[in-house]
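Action item from last week, closing it out:
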Amino acid sequence: MKKYSDLEFLALSKGKKFLYKLASFFASIPRGVANLFLAIGRFFKKLGIGIGKEFAEIVTTFTRGDWKTKLSYPVMGFGSIARGQVLRGLLFLLFEAVFFVYMFVPIGSKTGAQWLSLLPTLGKVGPHMEYNAVLDTHYPVYGDNSFKILLYGVLTLFFIVAFIYTWRLNVKQNKISEDILRSGKKLKSSGDDLRSLVDEQFYKTLLALPLLGIVVFTVMPIVFMILVAFTNYDGAHNGYSNSLFTWVGMENFKTMFSWDVGGVNYAATFGEVLSWTLIWAFFATFTNYFLGIFVAMMINKKGNHLKKMWRTILILTIAIPQFISLLYVSRMFSINGLVNGALQSLHLTTAPIDFWGTPKLARIMVIIINIWIGIPYLMLIATGILMNIPADLYESSRIDGANPWQQFTKITLPYMLFITGPYLLTSFTGNMNNFNVIYLLTGGGPTNPAASGTAGTVGYTDLLITWLFKITTGSETKYYLASVVGILVFVVVAIISLIVYSLLPSVKNEEDFQ
């Protein structure tokens, strides 16, 4: 592809500029992929070097440290307590005590070490019947619980990582304390540590609880979901009452990307649902965006004396719960609904229109109805931004002879795109996972016969998120396949987000609007 200089690019027409940018974008994809793999390689190289340095420092600290430091290796916090930093030492010691109690003292049915030992097999003794000679009857006996083993196994792994990190901090703290004492300075007391936590180190105090919440309620569930994708966890193998589930490796991913699995084409089904999800996300995002800006400009136009009334009417759409409004709209456009009744009464149609039973029409309808839902949000956002665009820009452009369209394309739109660029990206990814609109309007229908053999009943308006819901709530409840779909959704969203984010004017040309 021919590369143009800046002057040659400016001399091109608008159409050629667009085509050149588009071609440059696609031409940069292979280079971007190569750079990604190089970056991954550099990351692992740095990681290996960093781990080597950490081990070397641990050995050096032990060999050169005093007896207090050496005892701190098996007994965390001993060095800090011996040097007068009692609070730090007790916290280290308390964490170590909690860790060893969790790992080796039975609390409930098993210890942490036992949960970890069962993780490779996800259980050995499944549910079975045993005979009671006294009562002369068989009764069910439940053995291991695969779900709990996986859950507590992941928790134990996180706990071990946290222990290693804390132990390393303990060693590093001893080295720092020795260096301070060698320099003739005085160590901080426990009172100084407490005052520091509410003063210059207060940000650590504030972030401690949210960080713990993120790890427990976000990171751990994500890891758990990823691991489920490598098992056969489903309705027939729930891990406890009917049968244990086990590790199956990459079989679930092979199923998802196979063109023929028992006469079912999962790969084609996934491709079709993904393509419709991307089409839906594109139209749902940009129709709301541009029409929301247009409505905001019309309401804020000088001479309009009913601004509050129009804003109130639009905000009512937000105030009414979607569960009510979307179900009502769905009934309105049904075969026996209000709209078909009105069309037939006015003799505009001779037969009722099947809005939700015709694939193309159903897809068009969900996009149009989503406009009605989304415009009020964008109108409110755009109203606040439009009020902050300097009026001098419009006055100067008007003096230079710019018409309203030129003012919009050269002033309003660039300013809006700069401010709302990150919002556009999050809106696009949010629409890819927009469960409410699709499920409440069509339930994913009409059914796609070509994909009816796959897990869940796949419809023409199903997004990946609604398909995932059907996989986990149907009669089959294939949780492992839902986890695979969830991972693939994450990969698609992550790739799109990284590409688009790198192209946003908010990132590339931040200084232009300073």
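Closing note: Residues 14-64 form the longest helix (51 residues).
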